[in-house]
Amino acid sequence: MGNSYAGQLKTTRFEEVLHNSIEASLRSNSLVPRPVFSQLYLEAEQQLSALEGGSRVDNEDEEEEGEGALEPTCPPNPYQMHPPPEGCCTTDGFCQAGKDLRLVSISSEPIDVPAGFLLVGAKSPSLPDHLLVCAVDRRFLPDDNGHNALLGFSGNCVGCGKKGFCYFTEFSNHINLKLTTQPKKQKHLKYYLVRNAQGALTKGPLICWKGSEFRSRQTAASTGSSSLFPPAESSGPLATFSGEPTPGTTPSIPMGAQQAGPASEHPSLTAAIGPAVLNGKDSPKHQQLVKNDPSAMPRPSALGILSNSGPPKKRHKGWSPESPSTTDGGYSQGGGNRAKYESAGMSCMPQVGLVGPAPVTFPVVASGEPVSVPDNLLKICKAKPVIFKGHGNFPYLCGNLNDVVVSPLLYTCYQNSQSISRAYEQYGASTIQPISEEMQLLLTVYYLVQLAADQVPLMEDLEQIFLRSWRESHLTEIRQYQQPQPCPPAPSTVAPVTSAQLPWLAGLAASSCNDSVHIIECTYSLAEGLSEMFRLLVEGKLAKTNYVVIVRACRSPAIDSCVAVTGKYQARILSESLLTPAEYQKEVNYELVTGKVDSLGAFFSTLCPEGDIDILLDKFHQENQGHIPSSLTASSVTKSASLDVGGAPACTSYNLEPHHIRPFQLAVAQKLLSHVCSIADSSTQNLDLGSFEKVDFLICIPPSEVTYQQTLFHVWHSGVLLELGLEKEHMTKQRVEQYVLKLDAEAQTKFQSFLQNSFQNPHTLFVLIHDHAHWDLVSSAVHNLYSQSDPAVGLVDRLLNCREVKEAPNIVTLHVTSFPYALQTQHTLISPYNEIHWPASYSHGVDLYPENKKYFGLSEFIESTLSGHSLPLLRYDSSFEAMVTALGKRFPRLHSAVIRTFVLVQHYAAAMMAVSGLSQMKDYTSVETLEITQNLINSPKQCPCGHGLMVLLRVPCSPLAAVAYERLAHVRARLALEEHFEIILGNPSSGITIGKHFVKQLKMWQKIEDAEWRPQTYLELEGLPCILIFSGMDPHGESLPRSLRYCDLRLINSSCLVRTALEQELGLAAYFVSNEVPLEKGARNEPLESDAEKLSSTDNEDEELVTEGSTSEKRSPVKRERSRSHDSASSSLSSKASSSAPCGESLAQPAAPLQGEQARSPQPCGPSEEARAPGDRQRPHASRGPPPVISRRSPGPTAQLDSGLRTSQRSVQASVTVSSSQLSSSGSSSSSMAPAAGTLVLQASQCSMSKACRQPPIVFLPKLVYDMVTATDSSGLPKAASLLPSHSVMWASSFRPLLSKTMTSTEQSLYYRQWTVPRPSHMDYGNRAEGRVDSFHPRRLLLSGPPQIGKTGAYLQFLSILSRMLIRLTEVDVYDEEEININLREESDWHYLQLSDPWPDLELFKKLPFDYIIHDPKYEDASLICSHLQSIKSEDRGMSRKPEELYVRRQTARMRLSKYAAYNTYHHCEQCHQYMGFHPRYQLYESTLHAFAFSYSMLGEEIQLHFIIPKSKEHHFVFSQPGGQLESMRLPLVTDKSHEYIKSPTFTPTTGRHEHGLFNLYHAMDGASHLHVLVVKEYEMAIYKKYWPNHIMLVLPSIFNSAGVGAAHFLIKELSYHNLELERNRQEELGIKPQDIWPFIVISDDSCVMWNVVDVDCGGERSRELSWSERNVSLKHIMQHIEASPNITHYALIGMRKWSSKTGSSEVREPFSRCHVHDFLILNVDLTQNVQYNQNRFMCDDVDFNLRVHSAGLLLCRFNRFSVMKKQIAVGGHRSFHITSKVSDNAAAVVPAQYICAPDSKHTFLAAPAQLLLEKFFQHHSHRFFPLSLKNHSHPVLSVDCYLNLGSQISVCYVSSRPHSLNISCSDFMFSGLLLYLCDSFVGASFLKKFHFLKGATLCVICQDRNSLRQTVVRLELEDEWQFRLRDEFQTANAKEDRPLFFLTGRHI
Length: 1949
Description:
Elements (H helix, E strand, L loop, with lengths): L10 H17 L35 E2 L2 E2 L34 H4 L10 E8 L2 E11 L17 E3 L10 H7 L10 H4 E7 L5 E6 L3 H7 L3 H5 L59 H8 L48 H4 L27 E3 L3 H5 L4 E4 L7 E3 L5 E3 L1 H10 L1 H5 L12 H13 L9 H24 L19 H9 L6 E6 L3 H14 L7 E6 L7 E6 L2 H10 L3 H13 L4 H10 L5 H12 L5 H17 L16 H19 L12 E8 L3 H14 L1 H4 L9 H5 L2 E3 L4 H14 L3 E8 L8 H7 L8 H6 L2 H5 L3 E7 L17 E3 L4 E2 L2 E2 L5 E4 L1 H7 L9 E3 L1 H13 L5 H20 L11 H12 L11 E5 L3 H17 L7 E5 L9 H10 L20 E5 L13 E5 L10 H8 L4 E4 L19 E2 L24 E2 L14 H5 L25 H5 L3 H5 L16 H12 L13 H8 L20 H5 L5 E4 L1 H8 L18 E3 L13 H11 E3 L21 E5 L6 H19 L1 E5 L26 H6 ...
Parallel strand pairs: 8-10, 9-11, 12-13, 15-16, 15-17, 17-18, 18-34, 19-34, 23-31, 24-26, 24-27, 25-26, 27-31, 36-56, 42-43, 42-45, 43-44, 48-51, 55-56, 55-57, 57-58
Antiparallel strand pairs: 1-2, 3-4, 3-6, 4-5, 6-7, 9-14, 13-14, 20-21, 22-28, 29-30, 32-33, 35-37, 38-39, 39-44, 40-41, 45-50, 46-47, 46-51, 48-50, 49-51, 52-54, 53-59, 58-60, 59-60
């Protein structure tokens, strides 16, 4: 395969060198061959050019078992078949006898299969989609492992029944396979056929032709460029892999070369444990390699790529050394294999039958002698060997089976990796072959060789190695196919590693590892190899060997293999990792109960110098009985004294934070809300938010008492219950408990009542919050199997996934978890769109949500371990680990959890004794434990109140936790430390118990009065010095207080390497750090750790407590393994100060000057900085460490030092308790100053609590976990993150890309959704079985965020804002304004006195005078209309509002929507679903456009309108037959009395409100049938149609695009009259009288939201008092009432009141008024035929029209007892008109004074209709034209034939010039002005002469153009009485093309 690419090996040369090297190594005596690979890298791409073009491969003898392993390079000749016999059938899929063989056709037919034969499916190249059925003798087929198939063939034809085909060639001819290549059974017999449950024949598993098919087409796919993996030096535990791979020379190591560049310094690779981070940056070859590495997956793989691209040399016939594939040193971070029940399911292969925890089914064991396990194996080996079954047959074991562990993990891994070809089959690449078994084994050996001594193999690593090796060869092949070549590309091939060479290559690879991997080759079966291994083990010859690889690889094509782990450390960890958590607990319990652990205790007691520790303790106890140890006296005495005297002393560091919501939590709550809204907004109708009135909730939590109390506390303090209206002000704890459900045995009943509640309250939205949702994902099916054992198994599934929850439309389930991975599988119920991830605090360097606290989580902890950053917060304890390992060898039968616990408890006990004065015990503890204990015991002494720190000791196994508790409590009692710190046993199932003394302290600190109070959550232990022994297999979300300083996780079960488990444990330490003090970075002078393993503790000697009288200041410098964990350098006290200063004043100096604030704050600021003595300044405090121990007698200087450091940047804050002057004086003392000075200065800053808010706790981990967490892959992702995400899931395939650090939470979620599947025991397992692709539950959300970050606060806040939103959704702002000008009504016989009439009496009503005055509050700033009866005093209606108040927001009231409201587009509910048209029967696009034309004389032209009529509304219209032309809109009859529908068609003109207009009248009409037409402008048609697909639209002609509402009203009325005429004509033919056709229409505003009726109790006609009440009714009720009025056709215009909360009885007393009507009009188009709306008007067109109607002698009736509520809508309507300048782009507003100008002037023209400018100008500036009229209400302006608003300070008098019109008598009026607006021919000179004007009154004539102005002046003889001047001519500020209006003004002479 010559056309490989740069960065690869020149293959021909490679093989020569390799073969020579192997021969040389075999001949030489030493095991060290010469390095071969280092010379083989190509330096540049051009060197390849000579190789391009693919040299020919000769095909000589390269066959195995009669199969051509190679294909010719030239186009293949078609295979020469014998011509078929004459006359036989040659159809594809039929045999030559013409019988159908296709599986689809004969699957259900009975087929006779002889004994010993199997039915198999053959693939025909000409029928790719079909299988042909054949019967084949099973002896010629392989077994499950691809072995033992006889050569040759024997088969029958199932079609014609012909038997005895002995050659596959003959058989393939018979069944018409028509092959172009040599017929081979391996190639064409593909599948076994099996019968399904219905008895039909179906395709079964693939036939496993392993030995042959997998090598039959050895193209590049399996060998081409497989490569070697570098067992890099950096494979040590601390290797941090950068993007570059490890040094380029190392690939030679697997071949045994030790002189591989830098590696040669090490005698073996296993020595590379230290943190030598050689990441290959200096290796140019490697960089080059990476640049050209085509296999870079989502992360750059650190692989060397060695491709065998050329033809093999003839002298090595049939043997090409398959170069082993590379792996990434990052994998060396071992860590134990997956637990048994988990590994069982790693396979994605059909043939591995898996169910949950059951082990994998294995191939049949070959016959042969069973292997006997030696009896005393465990005793001799000190560990149980773990044997991993590999390839082939595994022998029986017998004998002492308890001493070995056999696991199927490796077998599964191999099987998974064999499924490559299946995984990639979809790409149709037939040449892609999986990795051969030999290759797999070789790679396994390479992997084991490069593992360090303290590492454990991980199956994931191996899978990735296989994947990469395979993928490289595969990529190479693809690349070759893409090469442009003259002839079709022919993959050149390289022969694979044969089984014969395998042992050689394996031995060669293992030769470099100092015997840590031992290869045993067997001849006949694995049994002999196993026996050999047991023999070597018993003889002790494998003492240095960690892994034994046994392989049987000769004589037959298939290999058998297994790998035994014999290293004591590895074997122990692996065997323990195979236990399930339940088995683990059982094992530990058993060891405790049977007393096996006693041997450990006995061993410990022998260690102590003076006999048993207990004896020492007793002795100490007796000596000190009666008096407290002197070292502790001072603190306790001062403490008690200060308590007695002055009550609680002041400690400013202790403040319990008030509960407030943080910006992040608010952001997350809003994200949750928007997700809920998007579910509601989607058209799927899964959530109808509009139908809910309130929110209720239930929080489900794991069965932990502390978590339960903590959640209750959060709910109580968040106030959410009050906000949701669920509880009253004074709620009890019991009431709160209803909302939190602990998922324990009693949960069922509480949950049932929740379900019942949700069922009974359909209008309440129930939010079911499943907190800590990754806990207990066991399916209820498993519960049904094991229900006897534990009722809680599968409880979550039984409750939260029950049918009622899934189907209830008013339950939304919110899963909340920090570890969502197990809910993100292929079968999850949660849609990826419904996942909410906690937002990152920074985005592109911008702090998104500024907070005063910074979250410190896992990634920050890991960051702190990076070199040079600061003191690491993650550490491990090397001396503890060493002790555990040693004891593990001594007590091989004990579980390591037991050993670890006992060692740690022993360490704590010894440390307590050492701190108490038994200094000899210092050697029996580790430095880390001593540091923890010292700080625990001494911290209370540094605080006047005795605040201390908490140490969390995590002991997952409850029985062990109890043992630890008892032991520590015993030691504490013997040392008389009971009052100094508390030991608390934290058990999930029980609450917290602490001693009375400590309860008293806590109550005092927290100022609690309640005598019964006990702490119930860990948060309430704030400041209590204590050891919290935290047990339980998993933490359940318990929060820990800020006083937590040490998180001791050394006992966590390190073998359970699952991402959730690890992150969950580390989540305990997550913390909020105050943002004000940045975390101290490491000082610049931090010593570089040259050795990196050990750092002598020069400055780090552990100093004993300086007791009052003690002079014994022994120094015991303890050598410590620094091991890059910087373990706690800050903790130990430097003794130098105490030796130089007087004894009592030892200044607690930090350990080695690791870091100090000065590195950060160069300028000293404030007195505190100056205060330090020069000596101190050189050695600032290691402020990251725990509080130092100081003597009580000299707190002054120390306190000063500490505070000075801490506050060097904020010195002012140091003076919390003292004034700064005092601070500086006391602070200026040097370290030798008298101890008395400043004794009480700044004690507070020494309190351990003051550090608490500034630095997170320090976490101690097991070494294995530490390595796993701190190792990162090349993208920087911690190794731990790429582990299996959870116990309850498994990988869908081993062929998955790796996670990458750059992935966001969303991308990680999608990754897990693609690559993980739930195990059968997982509750989501059955989800896909329903067969729906859309298997997500619509009302399920998942909130994930780091542990302890505040998710509970966020979801409680979400409930609050959800509730507020629902209330807001059910509420609406309606205008709430009093009627205006009420006092101007005259109290005469104006009143309709029949108070109880339901309808107006026509005769009575006619006698009522018309009330000209406008009462609608929206016209508050409109001109008053005078009637003849008014004598308005000017002060009556002065300035109602100041001009600037005109724009003040109008008064509104918030109203709850009733069930009869009109809705906008956001409302969705089941009932009006169909009405809105989102219905399957009515597709959105199913509406038709109809033109409708009618002529109108006034416009002088034909009007063309368009109707858009949805299919569902066509029944309201009449269409011509044929042709389908729209003819008319159907109208009912006046005589119809049906209550089923509303007679009047409703027209709603609207603009700019497609979303917000209230057009959904379904509920308002109470479901009654009605005709509703939206009247829209042409340019808005499309958007309205999109939002309201099921509404009829009337589209105005385009000339009205810029018109106002007058035009819409005008056209509605004209169209309706025209339609009335058409309907009269149409129905006349049916015999109906014209006057019987219903003449009314409704014209409604688009903001009418609800309608009310007033019920009046008149209390007898006489009484003046009346009681009344208002209620909400449907529009249907009102319309049907009005439509039923007697004599209704005599009324021209009917309306109703506008609602106001201030309505008084006077307004509703009279049922009817004859006055103006607005907003919602019922218009009689017949009577008003000759009264038109003014189509030019923008404002007040309804007042104008009302006046015209009245003057025409028609009746206007207002029903006072009906009212309409108008919603305030902030968009659209008249607001959509903006007046801007036409020329400039300047968007500045134009003031109304600029709306008119002089004609022909250079005034800026405006882009607005002339009419709008005119109306706006008059509204604001009419006083310029009518100066006499201003505030002169007794002399109004005479307005002829129109009403224009001249502003509130000018009154107008309306007269109509029409003959016979009703006008007020004007004889006694003197007018102050005359307004002639576009007057028509009815206005004549004689008409005007009737009116009298004041001298100096002004005239304003308005016309369309200047010409008409002059004509009007002449026609009306105006110049007789009015004087005009040229300059009195004006125009609106429009350009000529916009047709401005012209004015002429004059004065009355």
